[in-house]
Structure formats: C-alpha cells, structure tokens
Specification:
The structure holds two protein chains of two kinds. By secondary structure, chain A is mainly α. Helices cover 80% and strands 3% of the residues of chain A. In chain A, strands 1-2 form a two-stranded antiparallel sheet. Chain A starts with a helix and ends in a 9-residue tail after the last helix. Chain B is mainly alpha-helical. Helix content of chain B is 71%, strand content 7%. Chain B is built from 15 helices and ten strands. In chain B, the strands form five sheets. Chain B has a two-stranded antiparallel sheet with strand order 1-2. Chain B has a two-stranded antiparallel sheet with strand order 3-6. The longest helix of chain B has 40 residues. Chain B is globular and about 75 Å long. Classes of the chains: A mainly alpha, B mainly alpha. Bound molecules: CIS-heme D hydroxychlorin gamma-spirolactone (HDD) and protoporphyrin IX containing FE (2 copies).
Chain lengths: 348, 463
Amino acid sequence: MNDFVRELSALPLSTLLTLGVLFAALVLYAVLGGADYGGGVWDLLASGPRAGEQRRLIETAIGPVWEANHVWLIFMIVLLFTAFPPAFAALSTALHIPLTLMLLGIVLRGTSFTFRQYDRQDDTVHRRWGRLFAISSVFTPLMLGICIGAISTGGILVQNGFVTSGFLQPWLAPFPFAVGLFALLLFAFLAAVYLTVEAEDEALREDFRRRALVSAGVVGALALTVYLMSQEAAPLVRAGLTQRPWSWPLQIVTGVFAAGTLGALWRRHFHLARVLAVGQVALILTGWALALYPFLVPPDISITEAAAPLNVLRPVLWGIAIGLLILVPSLLYLFRVFKGRNGVRKVV
Amino acid sequence: MTDLFAARSQMAMSLGFHIIFAAVGVALPLLMVIAEALWLKTKDETYRTLAQQWAKGTAILFAVGAVSGTVLSFELGLLWPRFMDFAGAIIGLPFALEGFAFFVEAIFLAIYLYGWKRVPPAWHLFAGVMVSLAGAASAIFVVSVNGWMNSPTGFRIEGGKAVDIEPIVAMFNPAWVPEAIHMTIAAYAATAFAVAGVHAFLLKRDHDNLFHRHALAIALVVGGITAILQPLSGDLNARHLAHQQPRKLAALEGQFKTEKGAPLRIGGLPNEKTRETPYALEIPYGLSLLAFHDPQAEVKGLEEWPKADYPPVAVVHIAFQIMVGCGMAMAAVGVVALILAWRNRHRLGRWSLPDQTWFLRTLVLAAPLGFIAIEAGWTVTEVGRQPFIIAGIMRTAEAVTLVPHLTIPLITFTLVYLFLAFVVVFLLLRQFRQSPRIVRDRAGDITVGESAAARAKAAGDAD
Ligand code: HDD
Ligand code: HEM
Ligand code: HEM
C-alpha cells in the first residue's frame, strides 16, 4: 500500500488531478450515459401487458437528459487526447474497427431516438424508429466494453509510437467480448434500477424491479466469468485485482454494495437501491482503473510517459475549473427540473 | 483509391456534413429566442407558435449535429493519429472549452424543449439565450483549432516532438479571430437565408398568414444584416491570408507569378502545368488593393514554392469564386430588402415586410446560397492548406493512420449520412407542410387556424 501511495504522490499534482477528472468523467458517463443505453435494452425487451407503458416510461426518462449525458464521452475523448496524446493515438489505431462500429451505433441511436419523437406518431413508423433505437442501444455498449476489454488484455503493443500488434488481434478474442457483454448487462441493470424510481405506476415499478433483480443476477454471473477468464487473457489486470494491497478490501466493499443493492431492491427501498447501484458501478470502475495503474494502455504506455507536459495540463485544468463553475449549477438545474420530484438529485 | 485519399475524403465528408447542422445549431436558436422575446413583449401568440415550431426544427437538427460531431472527435484519432499524437496537447484547450459549451448547449436545449410548462417564462427565455450563446461559443472555440492548423503557434520542435508548448498562445493563433468572426457570421447568414427562403415560399401561397410573415421578418433582419457584414469580414480573412498564409492566397486567386500591382481575377481556370489562369476577368491592381490596401503592393505567386507544395489550385480557386459569388448575391439581397422595407416605411409610416411576389421569389432562389458558400469557403480553407495538415509543419500524408482498407468506413459513413440527410429533409418538409395558419380578421382579432396541409386534406375529402 505504501509503495503505491508513494508512487502515486510522486506524480505531479496536475497529472494526478487530470487523471482524477478523466476518471470522474468515465464514472459519470457510465452511470448517466450508460443507463441511457440500458434504457434501450429494456425498450428492446419490453414485454407483457404493459410493454407500451414500459417503452413510454423509458422514452420520457431519457428524452431530456441523454444529450447532456452523452457529452461526458466527448469530454473524456478530448481530455485523453489533450493530456495523454500517445495513448489516444495508440488506442484509435489499435481499436480502429470496434471504435468505428461504436460510432455507427452512437449515430444511429441518437438520431433514431430523436426521429422517433418527431416523425409521424403512427404506430408502424414509431415502432420502426424504436426498433433501430433499441438495437443500436444494445450494440453500442457492447463495442465500448470490447474496447475496454481489449485494453485490459495488455495486448496492444506500441513501439516508437507505432502500434505493432495489428488491428484485430487485441480485441477479436473471447475475453473482450465477455467484457462487452458485462458492460451491456451492467448498463441494463443500472437502467432498470433507475426506472423503478422513475415509474409512478405501481405495476410498472414492479416490472422494472423484477428486471433489475434478474439483471443483477446475470451481472454477477458475468462478473465471475470475466474474472475467471482474466487469469489467462488479462494477467496484468488480474494481478491488479487480486495481488495489490488494496485489492481485497476494494473487492469486499464492491461486494457489499452489490449485496446492498439487491437487498434494497428486494425490500423495495428504491431510492437507496439507486444510490447503491451507482456506488457499485463506480467501485467496479475504480477497481479496473487501479488494476491498470501505472499504465494507461498496458504494457507499453504508462501514465508518466504519456502525460503531456505540465505547462499543458495546468491551463487545461484551469479551463476545466472555470467550465465546472458553469456546468455544475446548470446540470443540477436540469436534473432538478426533470428528475427533481423523484429525487435523482441525491444521486448526481 | 489510396488509403490517404480515402481518409481525406472521409474527413471532408464528415466535416461537410457536420458543418450544416453546426451552423443551424448556432443560428436557429437565435431566431427562436427572438421570436420568444417578441411573444413575451407583445403577447402576440403567433410569436410563441413560431418559437415552438423553430424549436422543433432545432431539436431534430441538433441531434444530428451532436452525433456527427461525436464522429468527428473520434475521427481525429481514427484517421490522423500521428497528427493528434503531435498536436493533441497543443490544441486540447479550445477543444476542452468547447466541451463545456456542448454541455451548456445540451442542458439548456433540453430545458427549452421540454420545459415550456415546467419552468417560469423568464427562465425559459433565459434557457434559449444560453442555448444560442453556447452554440456560438462552441463554433468559436473549435475554429481556434482550425486556425492553429493554418497558422501554428505556441510551441517549438525538437527531435520531431513539440516542446515548450504554450496552449494559450496556440489558442490565440493569428488565424483565429478572422476565421471565428467570419464563421460565426456565416452561420447566422446561411441559416437565416435558408429560413427566409422556406417562409417566403410558403408566404407566396398564403399571403395573409401571420405565422410566415412574422417568421420572414425575423429571418430577414438577421439574414440581411449578416449578409451585408459578411464581405467586410471576408476582407479581413483575405488580408490575414496575405500576411500569414501567402501560399493559400496565391492558390485561391490563381496567382502563379509574384508581381506588384496584381490583378483581381474573377472566374478563370488555373492550370498548374502552364502556370497560368486563363479565361478570367481581370480587374487591374484589384488583388494588391484588396489584400494589402495598396495598388502597388507585391503579391507572392505560387512560383515561390516548390511544385510539391502546391495545393490543388483549380479546386481552391473555383471554390473561392463560388463563395464570393454567393456572398455578393446575398449582400445584394440584403440591401434590396433594406431598401424595400425603408420604402414601405415612407409609404405606410412604419417598417413593414417587403412582400412583393418577385422579392419572395428571389428569396426562395437565395435560400441555399449561404450553405453553398459555407461548403465552398471551407473547401478554400482546408484544400488550400494542402499538402499540409499543419501548415508548414506536418504533411497530411505523414499524419494518416496505418490502418488499411479505409474505403470501407468511408463508404459506410457516406451511406449512413445520406440516409440521415434523406430522413432530415423528409421530416422538415413534413413540418413545413403542417405549419400553422394564423390570420387577422377585420376586427383585428387573431385566429389560429389549421395547417395548409390539413385544409388541403379537408378540401380533398370534401370533393
Ligand atoms: C455564408 C457564408 C459565407 C459567405 C457569404 C462568404 N464566406 Fe468566406 N468563408 C466562409 C463562409 C462565407 C466559411 C465557410 O465560413 C469560411 C471557411 C473558413 C472560415 O473561417 O470561414 C470562409 C473562408 C474565407 C476565406 C479563407 C480564410 C482562411 O482560409 O483562413 C476568405 C479569404 C474568405 N472567406 C473571404 C470571403 C469574401 C471576400 C467574401 C465576400 C463576399 C466571403 N468570404 C463570403
Ligand atoms: C474547426 C474545424 C475544423 C477542423 C479542426 C478541421 C480539421 C481537418 C483535418 C484534421 C483534416 C484532415 C487533414 C487534411 O486534409 O489537411 C481536414 C481536412 C478537410 N476538411 Fe477540415 N476541419 C475543420 C473544419 C472544416 C469544415 C467545417 C469543413 C467543411 C466542409 C472542412 C472541410 C475539409 C476538407 C474538404 C478537407 C480535405 C482537404 C483535402 O484533403 O484536400 N473542414 N480538416
Ligand atoms: C467550423 C467547424 C465547426 C463548427 C462551427 C462546429 C460547431 C458545432 C456546434 C454549434 C455544435 C452543437 C451541435 C449542433 O448545434 O448541431 C457542434 C456539435 C459538435 N461538434 Fe462541431 N463544429 C465544427 C467542427 C467540429 C470539429 C472539427 C469537431 C471535432 C473534432 C467537432 C465536434 C463536435 C462534437 C463532438 C459535437 C457534439 C456536441 C454535443 O454532443 O452536444 N465539431 N459543433
């Protein structure tokens, strides 16, 4: 533990802060933007006597917020190429194909959602856009997860700034696909938990409670699968998850949050379940990020080597600080106007 | 097709697509806010209906702008990783600030669109104002990046790497101010002309419809003023080029020889082999005068540079002619509108909408000019920088990714964008057809009626 703290505090403050902002953006994108994708999953799987109401609830829940939530992704990308340019160059070369596919998903999801709202409201047209929206909502996080999985394998090799591991090998493998599925299910689980809070109708709330419980089970099974696969496929991350001094405490806390979410759902404390689910996702991402440390893209791109000089990071951090002064109140206002009654404020 | 050419085509296609939605995203919120402010001031419901209709258009176009912008952010790395490896740290600051502008824009647009009944009127108007300010801010920030590619500053090169980076100096590069002014005005002019064209077309068929009359009035004021300002701002760009980017100026003017008292060429077809620009109407001393405000000033010709550093001269020159042609035509329309409105003022004692049929017809014809000029102007800027991605520092060929088969994503994205364009046009046309009908009866009361389409349908049913 001490070694780790010493290493980390040896990083310049600006680098540390930049990493912190990058990580915060990742978590926010996952818990806000991720849930919007998850909503699409439940749109696709809407069933039973209230399928129509389920879809309508998802649409009203996502409508006002998805574009703002989506900006976290752009913010992450911009921060990555500003603060760690070699990492951005390597990732967008090695993961060219899954990233391109993810972009297609992003384009089709965003536009079909909007077109559905503004095209003719007759059922066939509405359903056609809805289908496209739902399918691209499933496809996009799958690709995102594949990219994360590919980074975790440590298979992206870089020499003198050039990617030497090819354009397929790092991601076209079982492990990244398993991570892709895990990401998809995790987002679906989050969305179901949120929707239990958003639903005003008792029966509808029960629909999503059931979905949350089932998907929590699947998430657990997938987490175990990914963990077992990582032994062979992602030894570095595996070591980070098990052998560092913080590994087990973090695992245990994550487990407690997961169990707590389940318990809260079971006993119908939906607000509490939402808070715990967000915590659970944040902890999973923390575990992953710490397991990568000290690399951004293992095994060849480390944080210190990739970081832009301090005279770049400092003005960018100032820019971010000023930006946050405008962003935070605006964002709180947005969530208060559209989610206030139900108290999403507590989560954001 | 080489992979380099595929990458350039994909970048050009994505930007050419995004810029249309970006320009609308800058300007349509302004029109919408003006309408809403007039509603709050006059209590005339027509204005509120108008603000709501424009907001609907903004919502559709903004979504397409947002996703196509996301594609661009990734494409910088997907297509030009060596460029981003070198330049990411230098130009990240304006991109990061642009990110905050996106947040603000997306947040307040949501409040505007979904908040008609949820927030008080003053807050609602404020949300609209924020959307329109944030839209302009994001355009201004991102243009700083482009300005830096054209006039790179704020770093030194040592061993092929950028050192001594000063992001603030890079952000305030010399090309930024002229480009940002010109682009921002372009967005307002182009969007207002397109909007004016649509409402002029509908007004021609439905002459008393206040909905279209109010819409046209707002669009004409915004479009007229900006169209008259735009050539002045373009002059600033040209003088900036003369001092900072002489190679590009030579290309866009088809100037092969360095000469004093260079003529301004209107039209003409530059020939890189013979190094001449035949078929042009030459205005003596025109170029020296415009670029340096001195008829005897020396203008550098392309002969100053090795052949390998020529941009595609004919493309740049023709694109420039197209932009200036559109710009002059738009400014002329702006002036005519002003004269007609002023004459009405004399006759009727108040400013009133110029609604002569011939003028409405002209407006319909002028509707696409602004967007044509935007596409042409960016072609001038970007193709005129070739063969460099960072002027004088890095060649486009050095920047491109090593990933093979780039024609596949090029074709895929082209097809997807064609599909989106088709859907957007379809949705907008449907919205135009259903636009409300608002008329004033003899007593001066206003009645909000059905859309023209609904009436036509009713008439059809009656037959
Ligand atoms: C409504 C659109 C529009 C109109 C009417 C005009 N332009 Fe323009 N022009 C643009 C839209 C535009 C643009 C698309 O927005 C560009 C591309 C880059 C930029 O900053 O603005 C541009 C670039 C651009 C450049 C190159 C700047 C550079 O590469 O740094 C010059 C020299 C001019 N313009 C000059 C003019 C002149 C003399 C005009 C006179 C009528 C004119 N433009 C009308
Ligand atoms: C701030 C905004 C912009 C940035 C940062 C930017 C950046 C780039 C980059 C990185 C390239 C590829 C490298 C190169 O060919 O030089 C490029 C090419 C190009 N861009 Fe832009 N661009 C911007 C705005 C635009 C817009 C709005 C258009 C509108 C049409 C445009 C049109 C083009 C074209 C036509 C090319 C291809 C040039 C060629 O290869 O011949 N650009 N731009
Ligand atoms: C001169 C060129 C450009 C202008 C004027 C411009 C302006 C804008 C504007 C006003 C928006 C808001 C969305 C809308 O209203 O449709 C937008 C969206 C966006 N633009 Fe551009 N842009 C330009 C070029 C670029 C380039 C080169 C990039 C990236 C490299 C980019 C990235 C984005 C992104 C990521 C969004 C989405 C923001 C969101 O999700 O709300 N843009 N752009």
